[in-house]
Amino acid sequence: QVQLVESGGGLVQAGGSLRLSCSASGNILSINNMGWYRQVPGKQRELVATITSGGSTNYADSVKGRFTISRDNAKNTMYLQMDSLKPEDTAVYSCNAWVAIISLPVSRNYWGQGTQVTVSS
Q: Could you tell me which residues come within 8 angstroms of residue 65 by beta carbon, excluding any fewer than 6 positions away?
């Protein structure tokens, strides 16, 4: 009923930039909190950044000052601008959202499939 699709991942050199997008589709009534998470094989998934429907943001200490999360509510899309990338940022980045659908106006949690970001040194 709801799909989250990430795009924008890829290979970049250290110091470079990438912009990730997460587009939500389906019978969406509203999207509440959204966030980006990342995971490296063998490690737990970790929070990167979150954003509320009103635009309040929160960042992991490791990305503060380098990453910027934003959203376009009219397009049901969230972004992650990643600057000054480091090799330790290499991970699969997944988007997460609390979404209410038209037929059931209660927020449920959804995940995207993930997009690989690789930063070479």
A: none
